[in-house]
Amino acid sequence: MANLLQPGECNEALAALPAPFDRLAFVDVETTGMRPTSDRITEVAIIPVDNGVVGEPFQSLLDPGVVIPPTITRLTGISDDMVAGAPVFARLAEEVSGLFDGRLLVAHNARFDAGFLRNAFRAAGLAVTLRELCTVKLSRRLDRGERRHNLDSLIARHALPVGDRHRAMGDCQALPALLARFVERDGLGAVLEALGRQIKRASTPPNLDPVRLDEVPAVPGIYRFFGEQGALLYVGKSVNLRSRVRSHFADDHRNDREMRIAQQTFDLDWVETAGEIGALLTEARLVKQEQPIFNRRLRAQRGLLAWHWDDESAEPPALMRIDELAPSELGRAHGVFRSRVKASERLRELAKEHRLCPQYLGLEKGTSRACFAHQIGQCGGLCAGRESEIAHRLRLKQALGPLALEAWPYSGAIAIHEARDGREERHLFRHWRYLGTARSEGELAELLEGGDDYPLDMDMYRLAVDAIRGGAKVEPVE
Question: How does 326-352 read in b/e, with b if 16+ C-beta sit within 10 Å?
Fold first, then answer.
């Protein structure tokens, strides 16, 4: 049996493979079951091979967030104790996605491994295009006289090197050796013909120069698709522009919307950012400013409402426009509603759930009698003198608590910092208002001089809250 391929080692058979088969990522995942949409990954191993040279392998146990069935533990040896304290996939998602940048995924039963990875990336909020090659299909085409094509059979038949069997890296290590063995035995032409039958190329839109598609970099940022006369069709964002742009056109035969975008796209451009937060902010700003034809979300929001309530006051909640609230009052705003009807419906639901008085809340006209809700046992009795104002206020606070907007936790403006490959960006916020993105000290000073005349945009607010809660690097700038 041959030795395992080592990092830095060049395999001549693999080095002979031309593009797009010259950059490969051999993969194996261990999971809690067989269903990619509901089961989870417990271990992942990836061996990148570029131009025949074996790269640094990646391997990690993962916390699946669910109990590992005993049958799976007996098969793989991976137990709940082993994954306790291991990272969840979302923590490693960007690092793992980078290993597929420009590489084809190669796995034994690739549909299984790729299916789990696609769902894991999707759950982590990443849109990653995986183009796969299956060594089971390859074996069936090149070894048509053989009945068994499972990995155990191939290891024995081809005397392949293998590590810890039924663990991710052990199984993964056999795959580059298997592909090399097929090239050595059957010749480069036969292997390329078999691989060529598997590869699914992203279709280039009929009116788009293929060179433009190839020029898209694999970096974070936003991209825009344009129609025949420069009309803006779509704005999107990604941590990997190349993969995301190509995914639009790879899916155009399965999704009517994607097909229409592909058919109407004549040109594209992109803007690089230092990271995901910058891409999200730029996308939100451009969609609202430029109103692309195919974007359905992040439209400009005007006249949004919230219930404003001071829990130390005897006054009931008042419905106010969010953009009219003073910055210091945002922490007393509850919920975001597009109409008075929707706001009243939600408050009515809370009143019923928490036995609050509709008369006090202004949902029912006050009279000299107890409210109707009290008469049917759905009000605690504030209107009938059977409940104290303080007790009612405490339950109202409990009811509105989950809807409360975040109070601004800083004394002045802050910058959310991102950096990549020498590119630095500071996204400035003051009282949750997005001031802009600074890429130099001059831009920083100019943005800070803008005062507080910026509108409160709820999409920008949510992006900032999520970034800060997610551990983004924050620095006070005034």
Answer: eeeebebbbbbbeeeeebbeebbebbe
Q: Which residues pair with 428 in a beta bridge?
A: 415, 436
With vertex at residue 391, the alpha carbon angle to CA 386 and CA 397, rounded to the nearest 5 degrees, is 135
Q: What does the longest C-alpha to C-alpha distance in the chain come to?
A: 95
User: Do residues 306 and 325 lie in contact, with contact meaning Cβ atoms separated by under 8 Å?
Assistant: yes
Please, which residues have CB within 8 angstroms of residue 126's CB and are 6 or more apart in sequence? 93, 94, 97, 238, 239, 240
Q: How far is CA 360 from CA 47, 171, 249, 263, 329, in A?
A: 65, 67, 56, 57, 22
Is residue 460 within 8 A of residue 323, CB to CB? The reply is: no
Is 102 within 8 Å of 218 (Cβ atoms)?
yes
Distance CA(332)–CA(463), nearest Å, equals: 20
Q: pLDDT truncated to tens, each residue of the chain (478 aa)?
A: 456 778 999 999 999 999 899 999 999 999 999 888 789 999 999 999 999 999 999 999 999 999 999 999 998 899 999 999 999 999 999 999 999 998 999 999 888 898 899 889 989 998 788 888 999 999 999 998 898 999 999 999 998 877 666 688 988 999 999 999 999 999 999 999 999 888 754 556 778 877 788 788 889 999 999 998 899 999 999 999 988 888 887 644 456 677 788 888 999 999 999 999 999 999 999 998 899 999 876 555 667 899 999 988 889 999 999 888 887 888 899 998 989 999 999 999 999 999 999 999 989 886 667 888 898 889 999 988 899 999 999 999 999 999 999 889 898 999 999 999 889 999 999 989 899 999 999 999 999 987 666 778 888 999 999 999 999 999 999 8
Domains of the chain (ranges, CATH numbers): 12-196 (3.30.420.10), 210-290 (3.40.1440.10), 305-403 (no CATH), 414-476 (no CATH)
Strands 132-134 and 104-107: parallel
**Preceding peptide of 20 cis, ω within 30°:** yes
The two tokens of residue 35 are 């269903």
- Closest Cα partner for 381 from 362, 398, 351, 356? 356
Chain centre distance of CA 80: 26
pTM above 0.85, yes or no: no
| CA distance from start to end of the chain | 66
3-class state of residue 26 by DSSP: strand
- List CB contacts of 116: < 8 A, sequence separation 6 or more: 29, 31, 36, 39, 40, 41
